[in-house]
């Protein structure tokens, strides 16, 4: 935080709190969602669609909402996203059937909180500190993420699955308070909204599709795999050490990444994710060992957290200042398209949860990550990229 002045620290803290509270609401339900959805359907396909449904509306809304934030202001767009998130969770709490659950999840995803929030921070900090600012955002999101995945299963065990969604709605309401305290400049883009995303930025955003496809697939299988060794209410026994250590590694790499190593750590994050896929989905089935399972979970979280810190900086280093919202919006659109397909693909493949299906998932995810590495090479040549912004 010494890299930032008082005003910058305040902006980072308040915006991170807003994003973090919303993130906690999302992650409260992820570890138990596959179990919850089975109350309304026996179809793994419909369960997968429900799990990833919020991703498709996020994918469709992030780019236009991000561009809109360039025009009408970041905070106004953030409020819109918070409102739909609250309504969606209320519907998910007591749906009549699986289609009601899917509808609620679709509503949860409308809006551009993260893209507008990151843009609001990036336009208020120096370019050479953005990885650090992203790491600070990551600390807040990581803490919310950790609390969400740890508390969600416990709450579900004691108060019921439906009430977890109600708590997520309350967190959404609270999240509007911090961002309301942020001072936002009045200088917005007076030019017509840009609908074109530069090719290199689009390709880098394309990588986020595969990362998030892996992330939501990971959570689709987590309840099934973890319950072989732990009760749902005891998921914290392996998640706490894994998430904390992975978070420390990710944050520790943020400052070196700002020193001309952003592309290098982007590559490292993809390689770690590539290693984690067969360990998490495949090896444990043959070794039947919870240590192997935990190693796979740890590798996933480490690669995922590093990618969350470094990839947004690649976007804003290449984008002009007056198009941060649009470009980050497209980046997050691709992320959440990955969320949707990350729920759909396992649902299509997994008629039953068995070794053969897990094998297919492991191969599919590994191929997607290898494509991401190729895309990163084509867009950067694994060399650092900069564009000085006005």
TrEMBL record:
Transmembrane helix recorded as keyword: yes
Q: Which residues cross the membrane?
A: 12-36, 42-65, 77-96, 133-155, 161-181, 201-222, 234-253, 265-285, 291-316, 328-348, 360-377
What molecular function does GO assign, one term? transmembrane transporter activity
Q: What is its membrane topology?
A: Multi-pass membrane protein
Q: Which UniProt keywords apply?
A: Cell membrane, Membrane, Transmembrane, Transmembrane helix
Q: Which InterPro entries match?
A: MFS, MFS_dom, MFS_Efflux_Transporters, MFS_trans_sf
Keyword Endoplasmic reticulum (UniProt): no
Q: Which domain of life is it from?
A: Archaea
Q: Where in the cell is it found?
A: Cell membrane
Gene Ontology annotations for the cellular component aspect, listed alphabetically? plasma membrane
Full protein name: Predicted arabinose efflux permease, MFS family
